[in-house]
Automatic annotation (TrEMBL), chain A:
Its main location: nucleus. Aux/IAA proteins are short-lived transcriptional factors that function as repressors of early auxin response genes at low auxin concentrations. Repression is thought to result from the interaction with auxin response factors (ARFs), proteins that bind to the auxin-responsive promoter element (AuxRE). Formation of heterodimers with ARF proteins may alter their ability to modulate early auxin response genes expression. This is Auxin-responsive protein. Homodimers and heterodimers.
UniProtKB/TrEMBL annotation, chain B:
CDD domains: F-box_AtTIR1-like (cd22159). The lineage of its organism: Eukaryota, Viridiplantae, Streptophyta, Embryophyta, Tracheophyta. It is found in: Nucleus. GO terms for molecular function: auxin binding. SMART domains: FBOX (SM00256), LRR_CC (SM00367). It comes from the Eukaryota. The keyword Heme does not apply. Residues 8-49 form the F-box domain. It comes from Salix udensis. GO terms for cellular component: nucleus; SCF ubiquitin ligase complex. Pathway: Protein modification; protein ubiquitination. Keywords: Auxin signaling pathway, Developmental protein, Nucleus, Ubl conjugation pathway. One of its GO terms (biological process) is SCF-dependent proteasomal ubiquitin-dependent protein catabolic process. This is F-box domain-containing protein. Its main location: nucleus.
Length: 194, 580
């Protein structure tokens, strides 16, 4: 049974829709403004250029990513790398192929971890609390942002957002590999639960 | 000595219960009285948890100490359409770790829409000596390393099914990890794997498993090798081919046709990527026995497609692309009188103009010709109320009806009216309807019909529909059996939600995205309903940085006895009394 929770629900009328004009039209107007389709008729809609709506039509995204029919032109390159953040209990994944440059990537990382100052690291300031680093093909840990983007996505195997306090002990130098990440640290990372 | 009246020996009740396997019946048994609750919980062997966050694994373990089979679902259904951001949750590891300790005799794990790590698979491989069946449906997060661990360690594995999952670093070598002494495989589905598997390992595996009944290959298994596999497994009941094309060579063709002819038990076919039509006749020998045909990925068109389908006179289930067109569906209706399930998928879902001649008429033909029709999924570009009314009257056995008109808010193309009346007829006539997906131009009226007539409806999917909160109110107050409701891009807001808050505890979950529910209402709901998790998903940043009456991007509400979860990513907030 419905419980009103002490709210006024006088707007709810159980008559047929369209039988009263006032509040209903208001709601209609609000919706169409919000949907950006003020006063559009069916014809107008056909003429408008089709912008793709996320997830519509509801075709399984698995099919889009994994279509094996040769005729499908979709090229989705997947550069999924694991991302860990010091202090966060779970590993995440990010698709590097979705981003065009470092600032894009860092914004995505910020959203993923709810930590909105990772991007500061790009600006070379010393006062950001977290430093994004990545492991390259040779197993060395490098500072994110030093090499050109294409080179980065080519060689990045995984990402880590490290606390600055930890990083300081590692002789952080732009452009150089981070010395001093011990084997113990590497083992620690592989035991993080996913 | 007095004997207790109505004392019914426990062993006898247990024996009776061993014949009761449906979850609903088992749940009903457990509610009869305390002693039945106790007896039932000790002998329950299978459990289905529709939302992995509704309960904690420890709670399941405490109540059911003797489980042999666990089935879990994670992400909401709209995750299939990219509406749930990556990292939302659904990690299975905590469950696996708990199950490993509690149930050394566990035999089956079935997961859907969950994030499964290689580590989870390793734990499964090493913890359950008698492990038999692993199903990973629309899962992600694991690589072939995890599969290798399963292959190497699960000596009694009967089923490995990876349907629709995303597998990282897909190399083929893991198949070789099944030891030569391993012969128990009955079912293998690797259709989702992107890369080649070791064919010789596959061939040897198939050849030494006499119980193998179901084999679904991936596209990388070439057609000219298929015959070898089939000859090694003539007992197959279900086959998913690999890529179905090769240069047309008479000996390859006759070899393949011969191999198919040898598979007398074959009832289900799928696969057919990249079809070269010249090879299709090789399957004709098995067509008359087929009950299930899945051409979802097959680029077969026109006469080739119709010829194939019309030979499958025993067909009960057909999944096909809209290349079948109205004319093909007419033929289907004439030939396949036992059809119970039809799914027609769009070959070009994002194209602005139709690329095939598939309209409402195709579905009308099938409803007229196939009286046993129960389940429909139909993508098309035009519909009328009249057609829907006809379809509604023709198919009394319908239990699942999902119509997707590709253009959002498309009206009846003949009358330009909303499709309220058509869908109204659907819910009024389909007395056993359990699942419904709406599309097209729809006002609040259609929801009034749904609330009035759809008394057995369990799952409803709504997009770009309705005018006001009344729409949502009709559904929540009228649909007595509603279990899952998913809504996107509808003008539903705070009032209907808050007025029907108690209803939400009787449902598994409610998803609302791009609607008009305010942050304030979410907080209120979270505070008032402690047995609901009210999750706000918003990639714009923390909702309390915006005005309270601002609508949230996405909202996922589900009942739970586990309390708020703690594995949320940075863009999900739970509305609880204390955390708000």
């Amino acid at each position: 049974m419905a419980q009103p929770l002490g709210l006024e629900i006088t707007e709810l009328r159980l008559g047929l829709p369209g039988s009263e004009n006032g509040p209903k039209n208001e709601k209609k107007r609000v919706f169409s403004e919000w949907a950006g389709e003020e006063n559009s008729t069916a014809d107008d809609r056909k003429i408008q250029t089709k912008s793709q709506v996320v997830g519509w039509p509801p075709v399984c995204s698995y099919r889009k990513k994994n279509s094996f029919n040769e005729k499908d032109g979709h090229e989705t390159s997947k550069f999924y790398v694991k991302v860990s953040m010091d202090g966060a209990p779970f590993l995440r994944k990010v698709d590097l192929g979705l981003h065009k440059e470092y600032s894009d990537l860092l914004v995505a990382l910020e959203k993923l971890f709810g930590c909105f100052e990772i991007g500061k690291a790009l600006k070379d300031t010393d006062d950001c609390e977290h430093v994004p680093i990545y492991e390259d093909k040779d197993g060395d840990w490098m500072l994110v942002g030093d090499v050109p983007w294409e080179m980065f996505i080519d060689s990045c195997k995984r990402l880590r957002i490290m606390k600055r306090s930890e990083a300081n002990g590692f002789g952080l130098q732009p452009g150089g590999a981070l010395k001093g990440i011990s084997k113990d640290d590497r083992d620690c990372e592989t035991t993080q639960k996913y | 000595m007095l004997r207790k009246a109505s004392s019914f020996p426990e062993e006898m009740l247990e024996h009776v219960l061993s014949f009761i396997t449906s979850d609903k019946d088992r749940n009903a048994v457990s509610l009869v009285c305390k002693s039945w609750y106790e007896i039932e919980r000790w002998c329950r062997k299978r459990i289905f948890v529709g939302n992995c966050y509704a309960v904690r694994p420890e709670m399941v373990i405490r109540r059911f100490p003797e489980l042999r089979s666990v089935e879990l679902k994670g992400k909401p259904h709209f995750a299939d359409f990219d509406l749930v951001p990556d990292g939302w949750g659904g990690c299975v590891y905590p469950w696996i770790a708990a199950l490993a300790t509690a149930y050394p005799l566990l035999e089956e794990i079935k997961l859907k829409r969950m994030v499964v790590s290689d580590e989870s698979l390793e734990v499964i491989a090493k913890s359950f000596k008698n492990f038999k069946v692993l199903v990973l449906s629309s899962c992600e997060g694991f690589s072939t390393d995890g599969l290798a661990a399963v292959a190497a360690n699960c000596r009694n594995l009967r089923g490995l099914d990876l349907r629709e999952s995303e597998v990282d670093d897909p190399s083929g070598q893991w198949l070789s990890r099944f030891p030569d002494s391993f012969t128990s495989l009955a079912s293998l589905n690797i259709s989702c794997l992107g890369a080649e598997v070791s064919f010789s390992a596959l061939e040897r595996l198939v050849g030494r498993c006499p119980d193998l009944k179901s084999l679904r290959l991936n596209h990388a298994v070439p057609l000219d090798k298929l015959a070898n596999l089939l000859r090694g497994a003539p007992q197959l009941v279900e086959l998913g081919t690999g890529a179905y094309s090769a240069e047309l060579q008479p000996d390859v063709f006759s070899n393949l046709a011969g191999a198919f002819s040898g598979c007398k038990e074959l009832r289900s076919l799928s696969g057919f990527w990249n079809v070269f039509p010249g090879y299709l006749p090789a399957v004709y020998p098995v067509c008359s026995g087929l009950t299930s045909l899945n051409l979802r990925d097959a680029n077969i068109q026109g006469a080739d497609l119709i010829k194939l389908v019309s030979q499958c006179r025993s067909l009960q289930r057909l999944w096909v692309l809209d290349y079948i067109e109205d004319i093909g569906l007419e033929e289907l209706a004439a030939c396949c009188k036992d059809l119970t399930e039809l799914r027609v998928f769009p070959s070009d879902p994002y194209g602005a103009e139709p690329n095939v001649s598939l309209t409402e008429r195709g579905l009308v033909s099938v409803s007229e010709g196939c009286p046993k029709l129960q389940s429909v999924l139909y993508f098309c570009r035009q519909m009328t109320n009249a057609a829907l009314v006809t379809i509604a009257k023709n198919s009394p056995r319908m239990t699942c009806f999902r119509l997707c008109i590709i253009e959002p808010r498309a009206p009846d193309y003949q009358t330009l009216q909303p499709l309220d009346l058509g869908f109204g007829a659907i819910v009024e006539n389909y007395k056993d309807l359990r699942r419904l997906s709406l599309s097209g131009l729809l006002t609040d009226r259609v929801f009034e019909y749904i609330g009035t007539y759809a008394k057995k409806l369990e799952m409803l999917s709504v997009a770009f529909a309705g005018d006001s909160d009344m729409g949502l109110h009709h559904v929540l107050s009228g649909c007595a059996k509603l279990c899952k409701l998913e809504i996107r891009d509808c003008p539903f807001g705070d009032n209907a939600l808050l007025a029907n808050a108690a209803k939400l505890e009787t449902m598994r979950s409610l998803w609302m995205s791009s609607c008009s529910v305010s942050f304030r209402a979410c907080k209120l709901l979270g505070q008032k309903m402690p047995r609901l998790n009210v999750e706000v998903i918003d990639e714009r940043g923390p909702p309390d940085l915006r005005p309270e009456n601002c609508p949230v991007e996405k909202l996922y509400i589900y009942r739970t006895i586990a309390g708020p979860r703690f594995d949320m990513p940075g863009f999900v907030w739970t509305m609880n009394g204390d955390s708000v």
